[in-house]
Amino acid sequence: MNLSAKTLLQLLVATLVAATSLVGCKTVHSVNSRYDTTYGDKHEVSNIQAVQGFPAHLRRVALLPLYKGRYDHIELESLEENLAQELGKQNLFELVVVE
Known about the structure:
The protein is α+β, with helices and mostly antiparallel strands. The chain has one domain (about 5-95). Helix content is about 30%, strand content about 10%. The chain is built from two helices and two strands. The chain has helices at about 5-20, 75-90, and strands at about 60-65, 95. Strands 1-2 form a two-stranded parallel ribbon. Strand 1 (about 60-65), helix 2 and strand 2 (about 95) form a beta-alpha-beta unit.
């Protein structure tokens, strides 16, 4: 069986394309996984108290600035603005933005 260089190259490219398409990256995607992402364990939140509905006695809520911590190089103003707008759309309370 005498194959030309062009045919061999085409066969090699087709084999590489087929092999590449059959290979995928495995990420953690199951619902009950131990991991939130591909790195590290899940963080279990413990300082919360769930309520059935929004308390009727709350009439005014203060929205504090987001804490940047060590990420002070990231601008959070647009995120804070969007958060205030979305909370305001709910019309559940008077929103006071603290700057």
